[in-house]
């Protein structure tokens, strides 16, 4: 086993992590940004006001993209298990 093998697996893991988290983090970021601008424009500085809309956005994102994320993680896990025989060489 050489270091390139493990670096390839680590690179794939980071890519899968980015693809799995982006559909949830990007809408939450946009919701926070929009709510922050509304709060700044109206001078309402209540912290709990932003929590519920962000929670709803994350929930809706999970409903919409949950199947895709689960498939992505399942494919990656299957790929990792298929590589186990390569470790013996």
From TrEMBL:
Membrane topology field: Multi-pass membrane protein
Keywords: Bacterial flagellum, Cell membrane, Cell projection, Cilium, Flagellum, Membrane, Transmembrane, Transmembrane helix
Transmembrane segments: 56-74
GO cellular component terms listed in the entry, alphabetical order: bacterial-type flagellum basal body; plasma membrane
InterPro entries attached to this UniProt entry: Bac_export_3, FliQ
A Pfam family this chain is assigned to: Bac_export_3
NCBIfam families, alphabetized: fliQ
GO biological process: bacterial-type flagellum assembly; protein secretion
Function: Role in flagellar biosynthesis.
Subcellular location: Cell membrane; Bacterial flagellum basal body
Protein name: Flagellar biosynthetic protein FliQ
Protein family per UniProt: Belongs to the FliQ/MopD/SpaQ family.
């Amino acid at each position: 086993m050489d270091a390139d093998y493990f670096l390839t697996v680590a690179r794939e893991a980071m890519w899968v992590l980015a693809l799995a988290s982006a559909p949830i983090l990007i809408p939450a970021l946009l919701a926070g940004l929009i709510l922050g601008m509304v709060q700044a424009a109206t001078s309402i500085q209540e912290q709990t006001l932003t929590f519920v809309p962000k929670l709803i956005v994350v929930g809706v994102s999970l409903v919409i993209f949950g199947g895709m994320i689960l498939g992505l993680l399942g494919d990656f896990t299957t790929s990792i298990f298929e590589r186990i025989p390569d470790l013996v060489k």
